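lol ok so funny story. i was supposed to be doing the assay writeup but got distracted and ended up predicting the structure for this chain instead. priorities right. anyway since i did it might as well share w the group, maybe its usefull for someone
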Amino acid sequence: MTKIKNLFYLLFIPVALFIFKGSDAPDEGMYPLSEISTLDLKTAGLKIDVKDLYNPGGTSLVDALVRVGGCTGSFVSEEGLILTNHHCAFDYVKQVSTVEKNYLEDGFHAPTKKDELPAEGLTSLITEAYTDVSAAILSAANEAKDLQERTKLIQKKSRELIAEEEKKYPGTRAEVAEMFIGQTYILFRYRELKDVRLVYIPPRTIGEFGGESDNWVWPRHTGDFSFLRAYVAPDGSPAPYSEKNVPYKPKKFLKVNPNGVKENDFVFILGYPGRTFRHQPAAFVDFHEKYQLPYISKLFRWYIDTFEALGENDPALALQLSTRIKTYANTQKNYDGKIAGLRRLHLVEKKQEEERQLGIFINSDPQLKSEYGTLINDINAVYKQIDELGRAGLVIGQMRNSVIAVRLGTLLVDYFKEIKKPDNERRAMFAEKNRADLHDRIKNSFEDLNKQVDIIAFERIVSEAVNFPELKDFAPFQRFKNEDNMMANPKNFAANMLNGTFIKDYESFIKMMEDPANADKIGNDPVISFVNEINEAYKPIEKKNDEMTGKLNILLPKFIEVKRQWQNKSFIPDANSTLRLTYGYIRGYSPADATYSKPITTLRGLIEKSYAGGDYRIPKKLRELYDKGDFGKYVNKDLGGVPVAILYNMDTTGGNSGSPVMNANGELIGVNFDRAFEATINDYAWSESYSRSIGVDIRYILWVTDKIGGASNVLKELNVL
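and the output, tada:
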């Protein structure tokens, strides 16, 4: 295996590592860095040199990009100032808010650096290098005695490679990304910044304007932006929060263009898109349509309605539940859009027909038939087994996540199991180097812990799950079928379990965790006992999952390879939270018959919506400024007002939140934050006709920061005053 010391060497990684070569250009647009030099960006509209965008041998726009938690951000000053989305900072603003000082509702502004508040638990990652480790991982996988072991050996080898890289480069974090399942694995190295602070956060009625009514909808008028700052130790090394830390000096920061864009302008995005599934077979999409999407959508809708009702007359509880409600609502509406898109496009049927035609192609050639003749049937056989498990994994996942006490109990059981292993063989979250992150995760879970909410969530999950055929024999749920037992009532069982557990506060939990001798003392705790029941009963399902993953790890590379031969075209790897480029144009679309949506909204539209109240409430100061016509230099004469949001035909997904939208000169003119409802299907299939993404216009960001926030210090740092 050849190690790469810096981005200079990326130029020499063969393109074949990231795409399957063919005669046609890819018809999608989440391009890995290695592909940028192969694109005809000049013809598309880029005015700067491609090396100014990505230069493996020097500094370029790529160096201004940063992964902010699960989002993207960009450096916009030499003092480590980061511009990202309001919803990406939401949870960290909630953490420093109280009912008396509710920065989440009222906004936050630090006039000086010493006033900036730590975003506890938030880290930022900057891509430094990556290298192909496919040979090493596949060599290890091929030593497996069975398919279940193959999956475990891939995970083990990945951990070993990560440990080697992080040891070689202190202060960095490494990750192995699977670019194509069972075929291509890339080791990424990141500079990890552990001290991130809040600088300017607009009021919630701006950053979340339109709420769930407008989420995944165009036209949009949401000021979804936040300013943060990254800090490091005085010697420039990554360090946790300390008053002695100094602002991080990025290699590159983006220039803000306060003049914005107009319709049909060329634009591009660099970011860290989360996950797409475009190369998966029909059976995979069918499983999502039948099980995953409807189950999660229905459950999350119930959570939202129930939790909102709980907090209606309890401001403290409403604040505690705010992040969970926002997360559930975002996912629920996204999944509804996916369900509608799958049905509208008849995507499963189209993929099935595609695979039928692929089968004809395979059978037409004796050599292909010899190698791939049973391939499609073999894949469908694996997914038949997955279908038989149905919602089992989803139910257990929700039990381990949505019931916070069970989440913490599961973490503790896993922790005591993992610390018995050598450090380099542990799961990443339990490695010694990640101890501080683990404690942050535990602390955040305790901030969400609420017995009343846990009982409600437990009752809902169990009451539905006991009626699922795939869980009819699941041992931990059998008690809930015995009507003669008072504990057969999930609500009573949960209340009894939570009343008797020691899992009540962060300090005692950490104290319990830090003494390995307690591993043998906690078994009688009712939450731990239930967790152990779940774990034991779930083992056969986990074993089957590992076996099926191992089979797919062998079958899917063949599936993609023979599709490449059939279609004679290039494939871009599905998104996997690694740095990608997408480009396109400021462009409207026709979401329905006889309608056309323009690509830029203005403050006038926001004011018109505001009369409805509710999700469309606005700060009093915003209306006063509008009534006075105080738009400053941010007004656009052609549009007749301050531009608020922009629409474009670029290829984005979750993880692109906070990505900088740049113009042909590489200047920042907006921040990506959403997609149109029709584009929620992008994760499975992308099309220029319906795939539209949404960003907040830089002119609105600057107007709000200036006129409402009074954050002149931020504007000076951006060099726009």
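DSSP finds 24 helices and 19 strands in the chain. The first strand starts at residue 31 and ends at 32.
back to the writeup now i swear
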